[in-house]
Amino acid sequence: MHGTNGSFVKWGLDPQEDALRAGAKFSDPGFGEEPESKWGELNIAGEPPRKIRTAAGDYRGIYANVRDAILGKAKVEVTPEQAWRTTRLIELARESSREGRRIDFRP
């Protein structure tokens, strides 16, 4: 992702699915964590690049939130607009990569 003051580059995919397929459990030590080689890199103009540790994944919380919202116990944490915006950014990133060109995004 490139912005006016810098860029953030992230490698790899969320490790949760592969870990679950391999028999891991959410309660296992280190579940959802990524090796440093998969961490993102933040580049801000005028500063040296730095690695940003990926937060350990645990997507069960989003399902619990949707359940609680349906039951009227909570507001949804991810709004439909936020979900659409994220999906649109992924689509644009793929298009940019496929076409080898920069695509501007203005929400």
Give an account of the 3D structure.
This protein has 107 residues and is α+β, with helices and mostly antiparallel strands. It is built from three helices and three strands, in the order βαββαα. The chain folds into two domains: 1-58, no CATH class; 59-107, no CATH class. Helices cover 35% and strands 11% of the residues. It has a three-stranded antiparallel β-sheet, with no helix packed on it. Strand 2 (40-44) and strand 3 (50-52) form a beta hairpin. The longest helix has 20 residues, at 80-99.
Class by SSE composition: alpha+beta
Average of the residue pLDDT scores:
92
Outline the low-pLDDT stretches.
none
Order of helices and strands: EHEEHH
Q: Say how many strands there are.
A: 3
* Global geometry: globular
Q: C-alpha Rg, in Å?
A: 17 Å
The domain tally reads: 2
Strand order of the largest sheet: 1-2-3
Q: What is the terminal-to-terminal distance?
A: 15 Å
**Helical content (DSSP H or I, runs of 4+):** 25-40%
Summed up, the helix count is 3
Largest beta-sheet details: 3 strands, antiparallel
Percent of residues in beta strands?
5-15%
Any key phrases for this structure?
alpha+beta, globular, 3 helices, 107 residues, 11% strand, single chain, three-stranded antiparallel beta sheet
Short description:
By secondary structure, this protein is of the alpha+beta class.
